[in-house]
Protein backbone atom coordinates (compact mmCIF):
# COMPACT_ATOMS: atom_id res chain seq x y z
CA UNK A 1 0.00 0.00 0.00
CA UNK A 2 1.39 3.38 -1.00
CA UNK A 3 0.51 6.57 0.76
CA UNK A 4 0.87 10.14 -0.39
CA UNK A 5 3.71 12.25 1.06
CA UNK A 6 1.22 14.32 3.05
CA UNK A 7 -0.57 11.28 4.54
CA UNK A 8 0.06 10.49 8.16
CA UNK A 9 2.43 7.65 9.02
CA UNK A 10 1.02 4.23 9.94
CA UNK A 11 0.05 3.88 13.61
CA UNK A 12 2.98 1.58 14.38
CA UNK A 13 5.48 4.02 12.85
CA UNK A 14 4.17 7.28 14.27
CA UNK A 15 3.57 5.91 17.75
CA UNK A 16 7.08 4.54 18.11
CA UNK A 17 9.34 7.24 16.76
CA UNK A 18 11.53 8.80 19.41
CA UNK A 19 14.69 10.92 19.39
CA UNK A 20 17.92 8.92 19.24
CA UNK A 21 19.58 8.53 22.61
CA UNK A 22 21.90 6.14 24.34
CA UNK A 23 20.23 2.87 25.30
CA UNK A 24 16.81 4.21 24.38
CA UNK A 25 13.95 2.19 25.76
CA UNK A 26 11.72 0.88 22.98
CA UNK A 27 8.38 2.60 22.65
CA UNK A 28 5.64 0.05 21.99
CA UNK A 29 2.89 0.19 19.40
CA UNK A 30 0.03 -2.23 18.91
CA UNK A 31 -0.88 -3.72 15.52
CA UNK A 32 -4.17 -5.47 14.78
CA UNK A 33 -3.13 -9.11 14.28
CA UNK A 34 -0.27 -11.48 13.61
CA UNK A 35 -0.66 -10.98 9.83
CA UNK A 36 -0.16 -7.21 10.16
CA UNK A 37 2.80 -7.77 12.50
CA UNK A 38 4.24 -10.21 9.95
CA UNK A 39 4.11 -7.44 7.32
CA UNK A 40 6.18 -5.24 9.64
CA UNK A 41 8.64 -8.09 10.24
CA UNK A 42 9.02 -8.82 6.54
CA UNK A 43 9.79 -5.15 5.79
CA UNK A 44 12.00 -4.31 8.77
CA UNK A 45 13.35 -7.62 10.11
CA UNK A 46 14.26 -7.51 13.77
CA UNK A 47 13.98 -9.80 16.76
CA UNK A 48 10.77 -11.72 17.46
CA UNK A 49 9.84 -12.65 21.02
CA UNK A 50 6.77 -13.91 22.83
CA UNK A 51 5.54 -13.73 26.38
CA UNK A 52 2.43 -14.68 28.29
CA UNK A 53 0.49 -11.67 29.53
CA UNK A 54 -2.75 -11.25 31.43
CA UNK A 55 -5.42 -9.16 29.71
CA UNK A 56 -8.43 -7.60 31.40
CA UNK A 57 -11.70 -6.31 30.00
CA UNK A 58 -12.20 -2.56 30.16
CA UNK A 59 -14.32 -2.77 33.30
CA UNK A 60 -12.09 -5.40 34.89
CA UNK A 61 -14.86 -8.00 35.05
CA UNK A 62 -12.90 -10.66 33.19
CA UNK A 63 -9.23 -11.61 32.74
CA UNK A 64 -7.44 -14.12 30.51
CA UNK A 65 -3.94 -15.18 29.54
CA UNK A 66 -2.76 -14.18 26.07
CA UNK A 67 0.42 -14.80 24.08
CA UNK A 68 1.90 -11.46 23.05
CA UNK A 69 4.18 -11.43 19.98
CA UNK A 70 6.71 -8.57 19.73
CA UNK A 71 9.01 -7.46 16.90
CA UNK A 72 11.88 -5.22 18.02
CA UNK A 73 13.93 -3.31 15.44
CA UNK A 74 16.80 -0.88 16.04
CA UNK A 75 16.25 1.91 13.48
CA UNK A 76 19.20 4.18 12.65
CA UNK A 77 18.63 7.69 13.92
CA UNK A 78 15.57 6.62 15.92
CA UNK A 79 16.61 3.78 18.20
CA UNK A 80 14.71 0.66 19.24
CA UNK A 81 11.12 0.31 18.08
CA UNK A 82 8.64 -2.38 19.16
CA UNK A 83 5.43 -3.45 17.49
CA UNK A 84 3.26 -6.09 19.12
CA UNK A 85 -0.02 -7.96 19.04
CA UNK A 86 -1.67 -10.88 20.76
CA UNK A 87 -1.81 -14.27 19.02
CA UNK A 88 -5.30 -15.10 17.80
CA UNK A 89 -5.61 -18.79 16.87
CA UNK A 90 -8.72 -18.17 14.76
CA UNK A 91 -6.69 -15.86 12.45
CA UNK A 92 -4.19 -18.64 11.69
CA UNK A 93 -0.69 -17.97 10.48
CA UNK A 94 1.53 -20.68 11.96
CA UNK A 95 3.42 -20.68 8.64
CA UNK A 96 4.15 -16.93 8.61
CA UNK A 97 7.87 -15.95 8.58
CA UNK A 98 7.15 -14.04 11.81
CA UNK A 99 6.02 -17.21 13.54
CA UNK A 100 8.95 -19.23 12.20
CA UNK A 101 11.34 -16.65 13.70
CA UNK A 102 10.06 -17.18 17.25
CA UNK A 103 12.59 -18.98 19.44
CA UNK A 104 10.92 -22.13 20.81
CA UNK A 105 8.09 -21.66 18.28
CA UNK A 106 6.28 -24.64 19.76
CA UNK A 107 4.98 -22.24 22.44
CA UNK A 108 2.13 -21.46 20.05
CA UNK A 109 0.87 -24.90 19.15
CA UNK A 110 -0.54 -25.57 15.71
Sum this structure up briefly.
The protein is of the alpha+beta class and 110 residues long. It has helices spanning 11-14, 34-44, 97-100; strands at 27-30, 47-56, 63-75, 79-86.
- For the biggest β-sheet, the strand order reads 1-4-3-2
State the end-to-end distance.
30 Å
What is the general shape?
globular
Low-confidence stretches: 1-21
Mean pLDDT: 79
Give the number of helices.
Answer: 3
Q: How many strand units?
A: 4
Radius of gyration: 15 Å
Classify the secondary structure makeup into a structural class. alpha+beta
Oligomer: single chain
Beta-sheet strand percentage? 25-35%
Structural write-up:
There is one protein chain. This protein has helices at residues 11-14, 34-44, 97-100, and strands at 27-30, 47-56, 63-75, 79-86. It is α+β, with helices and mostly antiparallel strands and 110 residues long. The protein starts with 10 loop residues before the first helix and ends in a 10-residue tail after the last helix.
